[in-house]
UniProtKB/TrEMBL annotation:
Keyword match Phosphoprotein: no
InterPro entries: SAM-dependent_MTases_sf, Trm1, tRNA_met_Trm1_C
Gene: LOC111484232
Organism: Cucurbita maxima (Pumpkin)
Known catalytic reactions: guanosine(26) in tRNA + 2 S-adenosyl-L-methionine = N(2)-dimethylguanosine(26) in tRNA + 2 S-adenosyl-L-homocysteine + 2 H(+)
Protein name: tRNA (guanine(26)-N(2))-dimethyltransferase
GO molecular function, one term: tRNA binding
Signal sequence extent: none
The enzyme's E.C. designation: 2.1.1.216
Keyword check for Nucleus: no
Length: 441
């Protein structure tokens, strides 16, 4: 049952006038917002467990909280702030808000006009309200925030039915639960932002192909760049759901973090006909030569690797359908960098990790770069040499006319259009050059 604090029942931003709730919701919805005084829990039932993030104090109580997820929250706040700056207003739904720190940061840092903080566990209500109370709640049309405790899909569906849409929806779900995707898309304004999550490393690693197929419509098999596949699997799942509703998606950034693991993607959802080159297809990896490539639907049944003279080979591993297009928008990330600099999150020796991450995302946005990345350990194994220095390898690849960038997903990997055979050649030449230097010395 959805529980709402007594002081949040006055008219809110989704109630367009000072009318009663019955004028805005069906009888079944009204029941969601009903409560009794016995259900109203005191705010002091939270155990003191204070934290500070970006100078904002909050209490985690007994909720599940990861300090390591702060970077993902930073990225979300930057995106939300850019939206408000461009559109002039910002209404946020934090569908699975936990302790409410994301909701609080959207209010304080992104200056959201209104945030609906929802968590299905009503035991978390006290700590959420306590945290959001650091911001004046407001009243009537100027209400800044509201807390609900209900199934996220039901909340999003109710707002969709009332045609009361959000600019920005954050769905920080656990595992491979994709049931949130369609209700979230429905509850979003045109050209709104959807921030989605997966923490299912087993599916992205190809260990549960039937589960990835059920959740995201993609049959995923083991590949060396499985964590990038996890991002593409998630984007592809949203793209599939969006296409059913007549929308298309544009990834603004895609972020992988090893803890969890966590796959987070920011998408703009737009109305329109799906383009033929919609970047929704198949990804292959050849165990024989180490090359990866993308295939369109029209190439189904004709997939092969050049190392096998265009014949179907047992060495070819194929996953899909997945998102095969860019993981990031370079222009958008440049705007995020600019805003982070204005906020002094980066620059002057501050925020080196965030600045490095955003810089790598810009580099990864190069349209010449294909799906996947090449690990230096795999190059060393195939060349039978010591693992070459990553920066030196990149430099030699670029000298040879190839595109190359570091991968934010794997520290010892390069995203490049340089074929594996060329990578091996470069590694061997570097090894010989190194041996020659030692001999002269």
């Amino acid at each position: 049952m959805l529980t709402v604090m007594l002081n949040t029942l006055s008219p809110s931003p989704f109630l367009r006038s000072q009318q009663t709730i019955s004028h805005c919701f069906s009888s079944s919805t009204i029941h969601l917002f009903q409560f009794s005084q016995s259900q109203k829990k005191p705010l002091n039932n939270c155990l003191p467990n204070n934290r500070t993030e970006r100078g904002i104090e909050f209490d985690i109580g007994d909720t599940f909280f990861r300090h390591e997820s702060a970077t993902g929250r930073d990225l979300g706040v930057l995106a939300a702030a850019l939206y408000r700056k461009s559109k002039g207003s910002l209404r946020v739904l934090d569908a699975l808000c936990g302790c409410g720190i994301r909701s609080l940061r959207y209010l304080v840092e992104a200056e959201a006009d209104f945030v609906l903080a929802n968590d299905a566990n009503d035991e978390n209500r006290g700590v959420i309200v306590k945290n959001l109370s650091r911001v004046a709640e407001g009243f009537g049309e100027t209400r800044r925030w509201m807390v609900t405790n209900c199934d996220a899909n039901r909340v999003m569906s109710e707002f969709y039915l009332q045609k009361d849409f959000f600019d920005f929806i954050d769905v920080d779900s656990f595992g491979s639960d994709s049931t949130f995707l369609r209700p979230a898309i429905n509850a979003l304004k045109l050209d709104g932002l959807l921030y989605v999550t997966s923490t299912d490393g087993f599916s992205s690693g190809g260990h549960h192909p039937s589960q990835s197929l059920a959740a995201y419509g993609a049959y995923v098999r083991p590949m060396p760049f499985s964590n990038e596949i996890g991002l593409r699997m998630l984007i592809g799942g949203v793209a599939r759901e969006a296409s059913v509703l007549g929308f298309y998606v544009t990834p603004l950034f895609s972020y992988y973090s090893y803890h969890g693991p966590v796959f987070r993607v920011m998408l703009r959802i737009s109305r329109g006909r799906i383009n033929k080159n919609r970047h929704y297809g198949f990804v292959s990896y050849c165990k024989k030569c180490g090359n990866s490539q993308g295939f369109s639907w029209s190439e189904v049944g004709q997939m092969s690797c050049p190392c096998n003279d265009t014949r179907v080979s047992e060495s070819l591993v194929v996953s899909g359908p997945l998102w095969t297009g860019p993981l990031h928008s370079a222009d958008y990330i440049e705007d995020m960098l600019t805003l982070a600099m204005q906020w002094e999150w980066i620059g002057n020796g501050q925020g080196k990790d965030l600045e490095k991450l955003l810089g790598q995302m810009v580099d990864e946005s190069d349209s010449k770069l294909p799906v996947g990345y090449i690990k230096m350990d795999e190059v060393a194994s195939r060349a039978k040499v010591n693992s070459p220095p990553l920066n030196t390898m990149m430099s030699e690849m670029i000298k040879a006319g190839y595109a190359a960038s570091r991968s934010h997903i794997a520290s010892n990997a390069i995203k490049t259009n340089c074929p594996m055979a060329e990578c091996i050649r470069i590694a061997l030449e570097l090894q010989q050059s190194c041996l020659g230097v030692h001999q002269v010395t």
